[in-house]
Amino acid sequence: MRSPIAYRPRRTPLAQAGAFAASVYLTSLAVVAFVCSNPIVLAGAGLGVVVAGLAAKAGRALAASARWGFSLGVFIVLVNGLVAQRGDTVIVYGLWLPLLGHTDVSAEALAEGGVLALRILVVMMAFAVHAASVDPDRVLRMLRPLARRSALTATLIARLVPLAAADYVRLGEAAALRGPAAAPVGRAALARRLVAGSLDRAVDVAATLELRGYAHGPPRSARGGPRPRYVARFIVVGIAIGALAVGARIAGVGAYDSYPTVDVATSMPTLLLAAAVPVLAGLPFATATGGWRRRG
Amino acid sequence: MRPVLAAVATSTALACAAAVAACGFGAGPASTGTATLTVTRDYGSGTLLEARDENPPESETVIRFLDNEADITTRYGGGFVQSIDGISGTGTGGTSDWFFYVNGVESPVGSADVRVKGGDRIWWDYRNWTAATSVPKVVGSWPEPFAQSSVEAPKPVRVVCLGVHSACELTADRLVGAGVEARVEDAPVSGANPGSAMRLLVGPWTRVRTDTAVDELRDSPQRTGVFATFKGPTHSGWQLIGLDVSAHPARDFGSGGGLVAALGGADEPPTWIVTGSGGTAVRRAADALDIRSLRNRYAVAATRHGAVPLPIVQRGEGR
Fold this sequence. Notes:
The complex is a heterodimer of chains A (about 300) and B (about 325).
Chain A: H1 13-16, H2 18-35, H3 39-55, H4 59-83, E1 90-97, E2 101-106, H5 107-133, H6 136-143, H7 148-176, H8 187-211, H9 231-251, E3 256-257, E4 263-264, H10 268-295
Antiparallel strand pairs in A: 1-2, 3-4
Helix pairs in contact in A: 2-3, 2-5, 2-6, 2-9, 3-5, 3-10, 4-5, 6-7, 7-8, 9-10
Chain B: H1 3-20, E1 24-25, E2 34-41, E3 46-54, H2 62-69, E4 72-75, E5 80-84, E6 87-88, E7 96-102, E8 105-106, E9 121-128, E10 157-161, H3 165-177, E11 182-185, E12 198-204, H4 205-208, H5 212-215, H6 221-224, E13 228-234, E14 237-243, E15 249-254, E16 258-263, E17 271-276, H7 279-287, H8 291-294, E18 299-303, E19 306-310
Parallel strand pairs in B: 2-9, 10-11, 10-12, 12-17
Antiparallel strand pairs in B: 2-3, 4-5, 5-6, 7-8, 7-9, 13-14, 14-15, 16-17, 16-18, 18-19
Helix pairs in contact in B: 3-7
């Protein structure tokens, strides 16, 4: 079964914008989550990611990452509530836990955990949309000038790990086909065969790469590919969102403090910042609507 | 139910029961009394903040008390205070940090793990620790640690008189005036402190120095945390030398200078010394046992002009 965040080619403006523009655009939404702590702004960033994900037809990836993010978020809230020993509004005092000893749970510590969880949720959703909408090969090609070996390693892993998983299933099926009277094959034996097969395959891949002249750079034909569209608008919007978040942080807009009591800025600039992120996130799709929908 | 599942369920239930056995909802019952908070820098030479907490609840900790009164940042998961009101510890490779004392005793655990009760005196000090990584006991919370205002079962307090009886009586009077029940003993120093009693050793330096804890005063402040030493004896007796924050001799108080200092390792009950070269110096030291002279001090040298804080901090020094 295909992973919900696995890449599938789609004819959406985000997919057509190319790896660089889509990465700038989606990373800017993650930047908002990293730079701002105000939950209102984080909610705005989350809404921006949802807008981008739905417009990029990556609803399954959004839903899956939201589920994972929510589960992780609940865990983070619980752990922060038990570990962080600050905050004025103590809900439970003197709770004794192994390793932690006596601990208090405060509303502020839970709120701080909630903000961390929201931040992680936004980042996970942004990168889930990225994974589902942007061709990973193009991302790796984009990174090749920066880290050639790492790009090659990542490319090979992206190919070989699914192959190894498929090999494991096939080996298991082959073992089962020997009949009920045959001695059962343990996992260790399967893993041993799998490792041996992977090593053989790795040698083959290395020989092929050498024969095809990988060290000489990509062939002329591989440098082309479909010409990306909507590049400028996604890059401009991405830079605008990132600059807005960083500028707001420097200007003190969207302040948030968990301790000693929760202090959430709800001023007009903060609300405008929170509203601006999803509006900006939807802008490149709105301006591209006419063309791509007719063609799609 | 499978035996394994039953065992897991039973263990979980027992763990939950143990976890909630001594806890409750809300901030917890309040203790009686007023806890005080003082924030200083450079060995108490500059006061940055003073605050009070009336009848603190069970859940009140040192970090919560501080957090309510000052703007702080933390490290290592929130248990270690990195900065207070913008004054930041210099961290790895640095030489200045925040230290805190509860009733004159340096805390061996983080500020999130120390509960505050009514009567406690919390003192945060930002200091250079090059010459003394740890100063386990200080005199700056007088009448603590002897008053033991927040302790349900106070330990006995002994004034060990090793000479100069008038100074011993004065010491006992000052303790009684501060609400401390103390008895004066004319006991010879036997080396170690028997039991868990808190002691004030009062007498001339020649007698006081024979105590095991006090003998270490001849070493650097790195071991004792006391920035003073006695030199001699000379023809006029023992000379009290005050050290600066780098543990270098900074001031010679002569044989007339008395010393009030707190000693004792992290796990030992406090031992204070009220001493000097001769009777006059010892009486001066005993006369310095009051809040005005000792407040926010690590130790003091008692001179005829009044108490001089130790270490000797020059302007701009200690950072």
